């Protein structure tokens, strides 16, 4: 081919066009390298240092931080709590959100109001969310007041001051703040399912329960996997804010999880290098979890 306008071969024209397009991608590529790849590389480097903060000197210690983690009982407790939070909240949030989404897809009366209400947790900042649930679980708060109204005042307790109940309170907050947003996302996907499928199933005698799990679930399975990944990442990495605002890991270490431990060691105990070793392991767990979820929800066709 030959370009008569410039006297250039067609291959040369294409090459120049590709270089021009590449030039448009360079700012985005530079941003990605500086603000994504750079911090990730520095994370692995700092995990192998003894470093107490920004103005403190750094000493390279190799794998010592990881060896110390193997003997750290607080770290072991954090692993257990993080696993419990994932194992308990993920099924509850995803299954509950999917059922809410199916209900909204039926377009009952007032469904638009319900959709708007579902975004209420998003409108609450983390400090506001913490204040709300501090009031709910306070000794004179909503939960104990409700028990008093039922004549069960003997069962009232300081929910956030006891190890077992504080852990349950953290789980309740995670589920409450996550389920509504997941339901809204799943409802948007379910609206794309043709109504004729549900109408045909109803004519064949399928009730809502069978339509939910035998029609809606297989169709939305891959999107459910995406929502599950997002919820997995939020619970694993962002639940530190809930722990920080409600219990600060207490009483003792009963509500410490891995993401909170990264914050606590770095900012409260000035063990930045040690905290980054936990962050590296947290990163590895996140990658493996995403791969596992992707494989679990992979389409069979």
Automatic annotation (TrEMBL):
Q: Which residues form the ABC transmembrane type-1 domain?
A: 79-293
Keyword check for Transmembrane helix: yes
Residue spans crossing the bilayer: 21-46, 83-104, 116-138, 166-187, 223-246, 273-293
| Keywords (A to Z) from UniProt | Cell membrane, Membrane, Transmembrane, Transmembrane helix, Transport
Q: What are the annotated GO cellular component locations?
A: plasma membrane
State the PROSITE patterns in the record: ABC_TM1 (PS50928)
The Gene Ontology biological process terms listed for this entry are: transmembrane transport
Q: Which domain of life is it from?
A: Bacteria
Could you tell me where this protein is found in the cell? Cell membrane
User: Entry's InterPro entries?
Assistant: MetI-like, MetI-like_sf, UgpAE/MalFG_permease
What's a Pfam family this protein contains? BPD_transp_1
CDD domains with a match to the protein in the record: TM_PBP2 (cd06261)
Its topology with respect to the membrane?
Answer: Multi-pass membrane protein
* Family in the record: Belongs to the binding-protein-dependent transport system permease family.
Name of this chain's protein: Sugar ABC transporter permease
Q: Which organism is it from?
A: Kribbella sandramycini
